[in-house]
Specification:
It comes from Lasius niger. By secondary structure, the protein is α+β, with helices and mostly antiparallel strands. It has two domains: 227 residues, Ribosomal Protein S5, domain 2; 153 residues, Alpha-Beta Plaits (2-Layer Sandwich). Strands 1, 2, 3, 4, 5, 6, 7 and 12 form an eight-stranded mixed beta sheet that branches. Strands 9-10-8-11 form a four-stranded antiparallel beta sheet. β3 and β4 form a beta hairpin. α2 crosses α3 and α8 runs antiparallel to α9. The longest helix is centred in the C-terminal third of the chain and has 31 residues. The protein is globular, with a radius of gyration of 22 Å. The termini are close together.
């Protein structure tokens, strides 16, 4: 009998929002607010699932589950078929639940879990046994912080790790081959949540650190990037990503030359920021305080520029402007992250920013009715948090 814990980070878009839709460069970083998964094998003939963040708790009889899915093999050549079968199973089997209402987020979470369980069991050639799984997250669900990818990465890592343990391969880290598999499995799973995912979120949540992305090209996981302290600020203003993307599209239809030049400028900001981030890492490595300070100032300028360009695209919001103004008043820099129109912003802090100043900034923002968290970017990716325990 085994049990273990796994975690995966969220993500923040640093630069490149909206322009990335038109083939420009985007930079994203792992966010050290994590989804956590607890797994243990059971003696009883049941699969127990708990996802408190979506108010879901259910028990599926193992024999019913195996009877439904075993005849599906082989399906690896057509994962759409498996997706359809999982959706059908979830629709039919509503009597396993203590708290399953079929609400959209519950349904998507359950489909993602069952899809990855069956898919990875087949790929890794293991027999599914009884188990209990519990997932919970520090991320706001559905807020553009990579919560669904973090969830999928945790599940993919869990079932891959379990498969290895069942084969007698005891380990406490994931190697490069494991990470590649986890990212691939999670990307397939994200199709349940998003239809046509870009590959950004699952890559960041798997590998951690920072990534560079351009549409139609493979995601580039960046080595030697710094970890950075931020304030993550929730405007508490809901936004619709699709509507905001369409707003930019309409603007481009009216002013194509103007908007394309803005996209080119955002691309240049992203590429320059990438270079500066590498220089910050080098300055941290060599303890060059003067170089570190000058490069952070350059990065602050680039963040100001990017926010200004996004405002020109009409995807900012008065609440986001307040956050960025507070940051600037204290010689920091803030910008929206994600689609804009509300949602989240981040304020980049200096590495040696005193806790008293962070508290003061947080209180100022909270007086404006924002919620604020101090966290970091560029953290570790998916991780086995607790060594496997073999129980008698």
């Amino acid at each position: 009998m085994v049990q273990f814990e796994i975690s995966a980070p969220g993500k923040v878009i640093l630069h490149g929002e909206h322009a990335v839709v038109y083939g420009k460069t985007a930079l994203a970083a792992s966010l050290n607010l994590r989804t956590k998964l607890q797994f243990r094998e059971l003696d009883s003939n049941v699969i127990q699932i708990e996802c408190p963040d979506v108010h879901m708790s259910l028990s599926i009889p193992l024999d019913v589950f195996l009877e439904y899915f075993q005849p599906s093999y082989p399906f690896n050549e057509n994962t759409d078929r498996l997706l359809d079968q999982v959706e059908h199973f979830v629709t039919l089997k509503k009597d396993f639940s203590d708290t399953y209402s079929g609400a959209r987020q519950q349904k998507l979470s359950l489909q993602a879990l069952l899809y990855l369980l069956v898919y990875i069991a087949y790929e890794e050639q293991i027999q599914i046994k009884s188990f209990s799984i519990r997932l919970y997250t520090e991320l706001t669900v559905g807020a553009g912080l990579g919560s669904s990818a973090s969830f999928a990465v945790c599940l993919a890592a869990c079932f891959l790790h379990w498969a290895r343990l069942l084969k007698g391969d005891v380990h406490d880290t994931f190697d490069e081959d494991d990470l590649e598999k986890i990212s691939k499995y999670a990307l397939n799973c994200e199709r349940i949540m998003h239809g046509s995912p870009s590959g950004i979120d699952n890559s960041v949540c798997t590998y951690g650190g920072m990534i560079e992305f351009r549409r139609g090209e493979p995601v580039n996981v960046l080595p030697n990037m710094p970890s950075m302290k931020i304030l993550l600020v929730n405007t508490e203003v809901s936004r619709n990503t699709k509507d905001l993307v369409e707003r930019v599209t309409r603007l481009r239809e009216i002013y194509p030359a103007v908007i394309d030049s803005i996209f080119d400028s955002i691309d240049a900001v992203s590429r320059t920021a990438l270079q500066v981030l590498g220089e910050i890492h080098d300055a941290q490595t060599t303890n060059d305080a003067a170089l570190l300070d000058s490069r952070y100032k350059k990065l602050f300028s680039l963040i100001h520029m990017n926010q200004g360009l996004l405002s020109t695209l009409d995807v900012s919001h008065s609440k986001l402007d307040i956050i960025c103004s507070v940051a600037r008043n204290y010689s920091f820099a803030g910008k929206l992250t994600g689609a804009g129109g509300g949602g989240y912003a981040y304020i980049l802090l200096l590495p040696d920013t005193e806790s008293e100043l962070i508290t003061h900034l947080s209180e100022l923002l909270e007086k404006e009715r924002f919620s604020v968290r101090t966290t970091s970017l560029g953290c570790n990716g998916v991780t086995i948090e607790r060594s496997v325990k073999i129980q008698d």
